[in-house]
Amino acid sequence: MTDFDTTIPPTASPEVEFISLSHLNPSTELEPIPTRGIDLKYFRRYVRSLEEGGYDYTLLPYGSGSADSFVTASAVGTLTERIKPIVALRPNTTPPTVAAQKLATLDQLTEGRAVVHLISGGSDAEQARQGDYLPKHQRYARTSEYIDVMRRSWTEPAAFSHEGEFYKFDGFGPGFAPYGNPIPISIGGQSDEAFAVGGTKADIFSFWGEPLADLRSEIDRVHGLARDAGRSTLPRIWVTFRPIIAQTDELAWRKAKVYVEKIAANFATVRPQLQGTPQNIGSQRALAFANRSELYDRALWTRTAAVTNAAGASTALVGSPETVAAAILDYVDQGASLVSIRGYDTLADAVDYGRFVLPLVRQEIAHRKATGQRGSLQAEHLGNYRPEYAQFASTP
C-alpha cells in the first residue's frame, strides 16, 4: 500500500456498529476454569463494561451444555439501557411460534432491542445431544420455514394455521407483538444452503474474519442472492474477529505469541473432542486460509484458528489499537456494518477495545460523513503493508 486513495470505496458501509459476546464467568481460553455456572458478580461487571465501552450489541451464545440464551439475554436487557441482546437460537430447541413469543417478550422488555441469530447447526453430534437428527441440508430448510412462521407470528392480525415440511399447527394467534420495528434475524454459515436462506430471508448475514478479497466475494454472493430474490433491502454484513492489541505493533506480537501457546495447550487439554476434520464448512474454510498463510492484509492472523481447529470464530487482528482500527475499517470498506470483536482475556480485552479501538473507528466514520473522504488512519498505520510488521510477526 504505497499510494492511499482518500476516496471512499463504493462498497464501503456508511456506518459501523460493534458486537461483543457476553461471558458468564471468568473462564477464558487463556486460563480455563472448570465450571458450567454463572458468576453473577462477574457477569454484571462484564455487561456493564460493554455498556460503558460503547458497544452496540452483545451475543448470548447457545450450546447444549451452556446457559439458556433467552434467559441470559433478558438479564442483559435488565442490566443495561442501550445494549441490544442477540439471542443465539437453534430451531430444533424451540417451536417457531414459541420463539416468536419469547423474542417479542424480550423486545417489549428492552423497548425494541432484541435481535435473534439463528444457528441451523454445524455439527451432527452436537445436534444429536438434544435429539435433532436431521441432515444438514434439511436443517437449513427447517430454518427457512422457521423464519417464515416467526415473522408471520409477529405480524398476522388474526389466528392462522400452518402446514409445512417441518411445522404444523392450527389456529395460532394473533401472536404477541414486538415492541415496534421488526426484530432483526441473523443467519451465518458457509454452505450453499446457508447462503440461500440468508440471502433470501435474513436481515443480517454473519461471517468469520477472512482475507479481504475472499470476504468481498462472499458478500457479493449473498447480496446477489438477495437481489435475485427481488429484495430491495440487502442483508447487513456481520464479521467477527479476535483482536490482540498492545501499545505498539511489536508489543502486540509479543503478546500474541504468548497467547497462542497458551491457547494451543489449553485447547488440546480442554477440548480434545474438537480435534479431527471439522464438519462445518466455515471451519474448513478457516483452516484452509491458515494452511495457506498465517498473515493476510493489514493485520489478519490465522494461527489462532489453526491451533484451535477453527472451532468457532478464531481469526485474530494483531497490532496497536491504531493498526487494528485501520484493519477494521478495511472490512468496513468491503461492506461490513456490524463488527464483532471479542478477546482472549475476555473482560480486560472488552474494556481495552472500548477505550482504544472503538473511538478510533467511530472518529473515522464521523470524518467520512463530514468530509466525504477517508481520513488518514489507514494511510498512517499500515501494519503488514510495511516490512517491519512481518518481522515482528516472525521473530521468535
From TrEMBL:
Asked if the Swiss-Prot or TrEMBL record annotates the protein with the keyword Flavoprotein, the reply is yes
Transmembrane feature ranges: none
**Listed Pfam families:** Bac_luciferase (PF00296)
Which InterPro entries does the record associate with it?
A: Luciferase-like_dom, Luciferase-like_sf, SsuD_RutA_monooxygenase
Q: GO molecular-function annotation terms?
A: alkanesulfonate monooxygenase activity
Q: What class of enzyme is it?
A: oxidoreductase
Luciferase-like domain boundaries: 34-337
User: Keywords in UniProt for this one?
Assistant: Flavoprotein, FMN, Monooxygenase, Oxidoreductase
EC number(s) per UniProt? 1.14.14.5
Protein name from the UniProt record:
Alkanesulfonate monooxygenase
Organism of origin: Paractinoplanes abujensis
